[in-house]
Amino acid sequence: MYRRVAISSVALLALAITLVQAPAGSAAATLTVAQAISSQSGTGTVRGYVVGEPTGTATVRTSNFTGDTAIAIADNSGEAGISRMLYVQVTSAYRSSFGLRSNPGRLGDPITVTGTLTAYFSHPGLKSPTAMSAAGTTPPTTPGTPTTPPPSDSYYASAAGKSGEQLKDALHTIVSRGVTTLSYDAVWNALKATDQDPGNANNVIVLYSGTSRSKSLNGGNSGNWNREHVWAKSHGDFGTAAGPGTDLHHLRPEDVGVNSLRDNKDFDNGGSAVASAPGNFTDGDSWEPRSAVKGDVARMIFYMAVRYEGGDAWPDLEVDNATGSGTAPRIGRVSALLQWNAQDPPDAFERNRNQIIYASYQRNRNPFIDHPEWASSIFN
Fold first, then answer.
1. 193: which strand partners?
2. In contact, 271 and 287? CB cutoff 8 Å
3. Which of 352, 350, 344, 341 is nearest to 319 (CA)?
4. Stretch 355-373: mean pLDDT, rounded?
5. How does pLDDT run across 221-272, given as a tens digit for each residue?
6. CA-CA distance, 342 to 294, in Å (whole number)?
7. pLDDT by residue (tens digit) across 311-353?
8. What value, to the nearest 5°, has the Cα angle with vertex 365 and ends 212 and 151?
9. What are phi and psi of 59, to 5 degrees?
10. How high does pLDDT run on average in the chain?
11. Where are the beta strands (DSSP E) in 235-372?
12. CA geometry: angle 133, 78, 250, nearest 5 deg
């Protein structure tokens, strides 16, 4: 009798331990990509950015995607190191939503995926996903991981150690090399990818207003969003022809009415509040954007002044310290733009946008997003 009771006590103790431990295992934290790479066993939920389509153990495509069956994710949207990517199998249930051939605009998107942590293409991976969804928030990062995606060292190699005009010349050569030029019609769909609302894949974020607007509402009517030229196209008279008129690095979605209010004004501090776009101010010859995008505006202007130097049939665009430039290929005010660049550094949305333009559309980057400190060296 005693022996039977003892056995029952041991069994009860083991059952109690199991009940205590089970919730901890079932509530496992979402993994970073780095953690998933180092823990290739069992089932896990991983959050990361889509950075390309793996086609082999050491090859990942970042444009001209060939299939919908696999994606690579990383802890940073601009990750170029394949060893820091997790290869994710995309099964038939998820291909229409997450395959890159069908959804090239997914590049740079944060996603969360649950599946078996095991090698894929003989590379750290996740297979047989049981859940895959757009992650509306920034993925967690491992300690010491930079929050700004570092561009390839080779991309800016010729600018290393330079400053002032020499740096400007070097960057002009870099961002003008091998560029793919879009048509003005193609800009519509490109903006739906570059400016997609991180919290709603059906919408874009409009620049000055900061609101989320359905992608389908692009056009010229009231309530629609259209293509805002941050460097006003009349400042150099380049219109909408392929080149500066279609350069995604300064084209952003904006409400039709707000776009009209901004018109071709220069940028500066001050003015009266814009009722239809809270946080923005304007007067007779200048526009002050809301605080969250002041730096974005400055870096777009600096890019245009470096990219277009008058040597490729387009006007030589320059930044000056005045407003009211009219149709001259100039825009200001540089002192305000430098201030905005410093007070509003690049955020995840802006860095992700830069990466999508580089990887999927124009094949060039805005160097002032990757290196905002270069602005003061060139434009002071």
1. none
2. yes
3. 341
4. 94
5. 999 999 999 999 999 999 998 999 999 999 999 999 999 999 999 999 999 9
6. 10
7. 888 999 999 999 998 889 999 999 999 999 999 999 999 999 9
8. 105
9. -130, 130
10. 88
11. 251-255, 266-267, 272-273, 281-282, 286-288, 318-319, 330-331
12. 100
CA distance 271 to 258: 15
Query: For residue range 102-133, what is the model confidence (pLDDT) as tens digits?
Result: 988 888 888 999 999 999 999 999 999 999 99
**What does the chain come to in residues?**
380
DSSP 280-304: -EE-SSEEE--GGGHHHHHHHHHHH
Instruction: Please say whether the beta carbons of 63 and 86 come within 8 A.
Output: no
Q: Is the CB of residue 366 less than 8 Å from the CB of residue 186?
A: no
Strand bridging mode 330-331 / 125-134: unpaired
pLDDT attached to residue 15: 34
CA distances to 284, 285, 331 from 288, in Å: 12, 11, 13
pLDDT at 22 over 50: no
What residue type is 175 in one-letter code? V
Coil, helix or strand for 309? strand
End-to-end CA distance of the chain: 92
Taking alpha carbons only, the member of 170, 255, 156, 250 closest to residue 205 is: 255
Distance CA(177)–CA(158), nearest Å, equals 12
Amino acid symbol at 141: T
